[in-house]
Predict the structure.
Amino acid sequence: MATEGIAARRRDSRLRAVLLVFWPPVVAWVAALAGLWLIAYLSGHPPWQPDTWARWDSTHYESIATGGYEVHRCVPGEASGSGWCGNAAWFPGYPWLVGGLHRLGLPLVGTGVVVSWLFAAAALIVLWRMFLRGLPPVAAGVGLAFAAWTPGQVYDYAVFPLSTLLFFTVAALGLLHRGRWVTAGLAAGAATLSYPVGVSVAIAAAVWLVATLRSGRLGALAAATVPSVLALAVIGIVQRTETGRWTAFFDVQRHYGHGFHNPFGVTWNAVLVVARTRSLGLHWPLVTSLQTVIVTLVIGVVLLHLVVRPRTIGRPELLLALWVLVAWALPLTQANVSVWRSQATLAPLAILVARLPRSVALSVVAALIAVSVPMAVLFFQGKLI
């Protein structure tokens, strides 16, 4: 009897441990998704219909999933009518996964939605387990709320690769923090394969390892960064095989007028839009610019907090700060890109937001939740690319 009692207590202890790992991020995920369902429904778009979650560039990911890459000369009526058009400007990790499941007989768009939802949940679970669980309860809850309502939140649940990128980014950062270079590198490679901003993990890891590692630096650098380089090489080889052009990605990118620009200039333009707008209606330039301004302010506050409290800067905080700077700045250097979409990759910033003074952190989360509503409405209405 005594032995059975001990075994029962051990089972209860294990169950409580499992629940502690899973229930907070799962509750946050359910709350965030339920909020998006409500917004979609009130906007006149049935949330149970997969097409509600597929907008604009979703079609490119769907075409890669079903038919691979293709490029062709643009024709009159197809944008400018010159240069190269096609789907080669989009990365393949997410569509390969969705396409593989689709070939098993699952519906294409519905599969894309479910994959996005599951990766969003998995990202919150990994973030909680690797970074937030050990913090004081209020700080951990604030961090989890920030991650669940991250800027551009709706894209993590739509037919886009943002939640896939987020999961692998969080996993890579957590594994780097634990010194598991090989698995961290593989996760970083998967992030790179998912979305262009994914390369920020390898860049931040390289700088961080050079700055902080005293022994075994070369091996750690190779393990943490080479998979990302190989991921880019794989994309180039696949595109060359399927389109006949080594430059397919850049050809289609050039058609959209992308190019390097000053990230501070883009941010300043967002400030001007917010400052000069007199109407507070649902105008996408205002809402997206407002999100960009909020994101910039949050990053500035977080970095300032680290500077004024240097004793709080350990190796994990330095890694996160480096990654945030790269992931924030990289999309802003490009013209004619949906910066508000790329900002959905900044959820790991939650780890540093959780360390802010409580009133500041709560204000940040409140601001993000407030802006997430009009962002979601505009997305469901098809006004956000």
Notes: The first strand starts at residue 71 and ends at 73. The first helix runs from residue 2 to 42.
